[in-house]
Amino acid sequence: MKYPVNEVFETIQGEGCFTGVPALFVRLQGCPVGCAWCDTKQTWDVLPENKVTAEQVIQVDGTIGRWADHTGTSLIQAFKDKGFTAKHIVLTGGEPCLYDLTEMTSDFIAAGYQVQIETSGTFEVKCHDSVWVTVSPKVNMKGGYKVLEQALVRANEIKHPVATEKHVDELDALLNGIDLSGKTICLQPISQKERATALAMKVCIARNWRLSIQTHKYLNID
Question: Residue ranges for the binding site for Mg(2+)?
Answer without folding.
Answer: 40
